[in-house]
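lol ok so funny story. i was supposed to be doing the assay writeup but got distracted and ended up predicting the structure for this chain instead. priorities right. anyway since i did it might as well share w the group, maybe its usefull for someone
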Amino acid sequence: MPIPNFFIVGAPKAGTDALFYDLEQHPEIYMSPLKEPCFFSSEIRPENFHPSLQPQIEASRDETRRYLDAGMPGKRFGGIISTWEDYLKLFSCVTHEKAIGEGSVCYLWSETAAAAIASAVPHARIVIVLMDPAERAFHQYLKSVSDGTVRHSFRKHLQMAMQSGPELGVYHPFLAFGNYSDQVKRYMDQFPTHQLYISLYEELRGDYAGWLSRLLLFLGVNPAFVPAHSEVPSTPHLL
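and the output, tada:
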């Protein structure tokens, strides 16, 4: 049964969603049809979310179950996968592709994901994109405003995040997502340097074509491929 050999692990809102949709166009790359399965992050499980989000989490769980049982028709953005059997289903349609990947941006923040990935796929290649923590937080806030999840100011959002409890939700791990030092170190401790592709978001903005070509070389596929423009579902849409 095919398993992934590379992972886009974060950071959230640092251009990784657009990268996911560009990579899936490459004829030598297979990307999981479900983005953000979060399988290797043991923290991302339904019971760990804030009580106010439980109805939403339960509905998402049911939708994800139906999606998997139906053979994964089309692409789906978000859906927690907690069993190895279900996780393998995400890669059951792999045919000739050389690079097999998935993207779950919680993996960078997670204290368990790096070791779990290294244990299951020790040869995996890891893609990390880091954005200035303040800018990253603001981008995530804008997405919450766009979704209608929050309606208050960014200042108020920061105050709420600093006062939040350990349950997963809008306010946690909103700030912790930007604590890169320990997060990157976990991957450096688990994987040799040649299996890590660590970049700054500014590199993407400055020369995306060149940056993407180098990444494709890192993944062992044709670096001359140029993706068509694609709409990214997670892009904020504000009036």
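Strands lie at 6-10, 29-31, 34-35, 76-77, 99-103, 125-130, 196-200. The CA atoms of residues 53 and 169 lie 7 Å apart.
back to the writeup now i swear
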